[in-house]
Design goal:
Largest sheet: 8 strands, mixed
Number of helices: 13
CATH class of the domain at 42-96 and 133-361: Alpha Beta
CATH architecture of the domain at 42-96 and 133-361: 3-Layer(aba) Sandwich
Helix content: 10-25%
Radius of gyration: 25 Å
CATH topology of the domain at 42-96 and 133-361: Alkaline Phosphatase, subunit A
Shape: globular
Strand content: 15-25%
Number of strands: 24
């Protein structure tokens, strides 16, 4: 006999309500397709351009990534939607451009002191009510989802997002070994901070991770204060130093550290691939590898040049489909979610703003990619980028402002300090000094084939007027299609998110009802709220939070906990029943 859920809330008054319009029964463990869907493993490193052998840079060897590329597809024209992590990751988790959904400022939920400098409190970006995070959609379609390391999505992920989130999260923890998984592993060793961090600021694998059957894959500050990983790139190595950096020993040491960290990252990739092989999962797992945006050095990260947007990108299929091939299609990060859904056989939500580049029913390849930058830490600048296969167009909404912004975080890097010393001493070359101009043109156009470092502005050249007009029109079309919240003052945007109040609203607590068949329904009065719940038999510990997708039943004596969260609002208090 089933038992009516009781609650500690005044919801007791509504528990006997009946609903004839309830959605059909659905359970994340049972609604997977009858044919086995592929696992999807996402290996996401940080802050590197395509500075790997399989993309033409042989400064260091990366045997594990090289093997992955040999059995996969390389995509040399893949671009982030932003040159910095939080807006980029916001796109990856939502499938929307940050300027469209409000996640365009770097960063919104951390760094209280930095936000205070611009008159803001930390805030979660309020997503449109129909938007769900990508892992939740995978869960609703029968997948086990895990994320072992980093979120940084411009909002706290709801309990509906992940079966497991944290240092020990791993596909090996799914209860049913036949259940498909969507697993993300973030590799931070190549992050910008790892160039200058010393001692306990440096991170590496926890000792003992290579034991057979290990399910941990986490970072710990395990170096003594005066220790660092050895530089594996020799001092006399030939380094591809870009012309906008000072050619000095401190800069070269920073570059050696970048490449040495890439070698460490490659070993981490090998560790994960080894676990996958150990588990016998290579024959049913699609592997995505990419960086969250471009390189970590000055005039790379945070900017709209290819050095800040272009990323290494490899996809490997279980059957070695198109093994060793190169696909030069233009790909944007906004295309990642529809592609993964397409490969998993999941219907694409209508709000997604990208298009699939793999799987069935692929649309024609993109003609342009787009990107944006707005507030970066404590400074505002508003730039929009449009690019085809060869030409890059930049629209500078604040031309009176220098490209260079004095970010305290970046100025810890020796290569940045070398540029500032040269600026103050008047010893920089034209290429190095260009970044420090007091103002910038309203429009810029670069030929990335003849000018890969984007130093020569062709916007006023009559020979390129047609291309300028084409990319200008492409950008206008994009902005009209997706919207651009960068035109709205950030403080006013947050006030709108919070309904004009001084603090983040709280999501309405789940209400508990029954439908005409006696099944239980969870509802929140907050539009766009997602509900997570746990049903726990007597004497057992609560398991993972489950995604509520429709009416359900449970046995007499079981206990139930439920919470609701509209992304951008505080999580509700719990509803409890037994």
């Amino acid at each position: 006999m089933k038992r009516l859920i009781l609650s500690y809330l005044p919801l007791l008054l509504v528990l006997l309500c009946w609903s004839c319009d309830a959605p059909p029964t659905s359970d994340p463990k049972t609604n997977a397709a009858t044919t086995k869907r592929p696992n999807i493993l996402v290996i996401n490193c940080e802050d590197i351009s395509p500075m790997l052998p399989m993309f033409g840079d042989s400064t260091v060897e990366t045997p594990n990534l090289s093997r992955l590329a040999a059995r996969g597809i390389r995509f040399p024209n893949t671009f982030s939607v932003a040159g910095v992590c939080a807006p980029s990751r916001h796109c990856l988790i939502t499938g929307m451009y940050p300027i469209s959904s409000g996640g365009h400022h770097m960063r919104t939920i951390w760094n209280r002191a930095t936000l205070a400098k611009v008159g803001l409190e930390p805030y979660d970006v309020l997503l449109p009510p129909q938007v769900k995070v990508i892992p939740q959609i995978f869960r609703e379609n029968g997948y086990f989802t895990s994320n072992n390391q980093k979120t940084d999505y411009q909002f706290d992920p709801p309990k509906t997002a992940w079966d497991e989130l944290g240092p020990k999260a791993h596909w090996r923890h799914r209860g049913d070994k036949d259940q498909a998984f969507y697993a993300i592993f973030d590799l931070e060793i190549t992050h910008e901070s790892q160039i200058w961090m010393t001692g306990k600021g440096q991170m590496r694998f926890q000792e003992g991770l290579e034991k057979p059957g290990s399910t941990e894959f986490k970072w710990e500050n395990v170096y003594a204060d005066d220790e660092r990983p050895a530089l594996t790139v020799p001092a006399d190595a030939k380094l591809p130093l870009p012309p906008y950096l000072v050619d000095s020993e401190p800069t070269r040491t920073d570059m050696r550290r970048v490449y040495s960290n890439i070698e460490i990252m490659d070993k981490q990739v090998g560790f994960l691939l080894g676990q996958l092989e150990e588990d016998g999962l290579l024959d049913n797992t699609i592997i995505f590898f990419f960086s969250d945006h471009g390189g970590p050095l000055p005039r790379q990260k945070r900017l709209m040049y290819d050095s800040g947007l272009r990323v290494p990108h490899i996809v490997a299929f279980p059957d070695n489909q198109r093994a060793g091939s190169i696909d030069s299609s233009l790909i944007s990060f906004v295309d990642m979610a529809p592609t993964m859904f397409n490969l998993a056989g999941i219907t694409l939500p209508a709000y997604l703003q990208g298009q699939p580049f793999l799987g069935s029913d692929i649309p024609p390849a993109r003609e342009h990619i787009f990107a944006a930058v707005d507030r970066t830490d404590e400074h505002y600048d508003r730039i929009r980028a449009a690019r085809d296969y060869r030409f890059k167009y930049l629209r500078n909404y604040m031309p009176e402002q220098s490209y260079y912004l004095p970010l305290e975080y970046r100025e810890q890097m020796a290569a940045m300090q070398e540029l500032l010393k040269g600026r103050d001493a008047g010893t920089l070359t034209d290429a190095q000094a260009q970044w420090f101009r007091k103002a910038k043109p309203a429009e810029e156009l670069f030929d990335t084939k003849t000018d890969p470092h984007e130093l020569i502005n062709l916007a006023s050249d009559p020979k390129h007027a047609a291309k300028l007009n084409e990319l200008r029109a492409a950008m206008d079309g994009w902005l009209n299609e997706v919207g651009d919240l960068g035109a709205e003052d950030e403080r006013e945007m947050v006030s709108r998110f919070w309904n004009g109040q001084n603090e983040m609203p709280t999501t309405g607590r789940p209400q508990l009802k029954r439908d005409s068949l006696g099944r239980f329904i969870l509802e929140s009065k907050t539009e766009g709220a997602q509900i997570a719940y746990q049903v726990t038999p007597p004497g057992e510990k609560p398991g993972n939070w489950q995604v509520y997708t429709g009416p359900f039943e449970y046995e007499r004596g079981d206990s139930l906990r439920a919470v609701a969260q509209r992304i951008g609002y505080r999580e509700s208090s719990e509803s409890v029943g037994w």
